[in-house]
Specification:
single chain, 232 residues, Gyrase A, domain 2, Cyclophilin, seven-stranded mixed β-sheet, 28% strand
């Protein structure tokens, strides 16, 4: 673990050079330990793939004290954190012809059938490595290398809300309508961000996510909307 000054009121902690489950868990456990100080001396914690940004109240503490808190968190993790592994969040996906315009390209590249590719996407237990790009956009990894696919050469100007997508060895759900260059393979009717909800997102960094298939009738019953897909 390496700690560097990120600003006059912040430190950034690097837990490793590469993304892995161990690194993600270390970030999760450290965040859970430090969260008890948010509202007192700390302002916010921002986890990412292999790092944690710790922002503090410069009127109440300083870099040296916060470094000490981070080291305490590290010691707690090494001694065996009391934090429990987060429950698996299961998200429904409609892998319909209309909602999976890029699935054929993945199958052509991999040699898999459509059914095999969908099954592989559901079999993997994904960890939430980071939340970014947009509120509720969770970067999930890692996808099976058989269905990994590079980003589109030309991003779409408009990706429907709920679109389930793959880019390289990551998968994600678009929380709102936005531009995007990921490969679209389905649609999830579960809202990924609700500013009025508590919590505002169904997942957080460190969580585990598993997708499961639903049919069109279930998709509509759960609030899914196919109208936006007609424009693709």
């Amino acid at each position: 673990m390496r700690i560097h000054v990120a600003g006059e009121n912040s430190l950034i902690v690097y837990f490793g050079e590469n993304v892995s489950n161990d690194v993600s868990l270390a970030i999760q456990h450290t965040s859970e330990y430090l969260s008890q100080f948010v509202g007192e001396t700390l302002v916010d914690l921002v986890p990412s793939y292999a790092s944690l940004l710790v922002i503090f109240d410069a009127l109440r503490t300083d870099h040296l004290h916060v470094r000490g808190l981070i080291r305490q968190a590290q010691n707690q993790a090494q001694q065996g954190s009391d934090a429990q592994d987060n429950a698996v969040v299961r998200l429904p996906v409609f892998y319909g012809e209309q909602t999976s315009p890029d699935l054929a390209a993945i199958c052509e590249k991999s040699g898999l059938t459509r059914e095999q590719a969908i099954e592989i996407h559901q079999q993997t237990l994904y960890r939430v490595y980071a939340i970014g790009f947009a509120p509720g956009f969770a970067y999930l990894g890692e996808t099976d290398e058989r269905i990994a696919m590079p980003r589109l050469a030309t991003p779409r100007k408009k990706v429907p809300k709920g679109a389930v997508a793959i880019a390289d060895r990551q998968t994600a759900v678009y929380p709102a309508v936005s531009p995007g260059g990921w490969n679209l393979i389905g649609c999830c009717p579960t809202p990924m961000f609700d500013p009025k909800g508590n919590p505002t997102m169904p997942v957080k960094a460190g969580d585990a996510v598993q997708f499961y298939a639903i049919d069109e009738a279930e998709f509509i019953a759960l609030g899914g909307d196919l109208n936006a897909w007609k424009e693709l």
